[in-house]
What does this fold into?
Amino acid sequence: MTTSRLSDKFRLVEMVAVDSTNEEAKRLACSGAADGTLVWAQRQTAGRGRRGRVWTSEPGNLYASFVLRPNCAPFQAAQLTFVAALAVRDMLTIFLNNSDTIACKWPNDVLIGGRKISGILLESSTAGSGIVDWLVLGIGVNLRHHPDIAGRHPATDLSAEGAGAVASSSALETLAIAFAERRGEWLHGGFEAVRNAWLKHAYGLGQTAHIKLENASHSGLFIGIDESGALRLKADGCAEQLFAAGEVTFERSD
Ligand code: BTN
It folds into this structure.
């Protein structure tokens, strides 16, 4: 890709192969890379998902990581995963005729028809001042293939959803534009603006959700997210509960 096709907000680092774009982005961040450095690879040899899971990374899908220096506290920086999920959703709507079934699943997946098409992995380092020094936002989007995952939320890819063969360069370009716009909304409107937009496309809102924590699990109606992005669950006869992290599944998968 020629860098001129990318917004001037980003500086592209393009690679044929890398262990993980997040790892490369972190290496660059530690050596002083500027806000907006964007690492993009055709394939990853050690792609990672959340909770140490492997992220299958054959050529054909999108693997990219943004280095950001948001100059804010860690709790605010974490809001950028919602910003990224909205940007991924915006990007997918450009390539698909029907955007009704594209949803954001808490905390940071994007689904089409209940099937996972994208995952986001945020990693950050905070300086002694309590301000985030750098943040790496890694985004994987299944464009041409997807892993065969059983369970409540199996995977899908853009071509399986009828978008044809989308080049990873086009997906990246579209994603970068969408991310710059959504980040601007976050900067000017705060998390409230992002939260409202995210809730419009939230997967499973009003449905029974199960959240798995390290040593426990809870169920209840998914009634929204709070002003910090925590999941709000309400079980019959109980006070509302808030969860900052966890693995969520829903009873139905549409
Ligand atoms: C998840 O859903 O568990 C998060 C998946 C994040 C995958 C992306 S692909 C680009 C970047 N590099 C990685 O090693 N992981 C993220």
The chain has a mean pLDDT of 94. Helices lie at 21-30, 74-77, 80-95, 168-200. The longest strand covers residues 115-126.
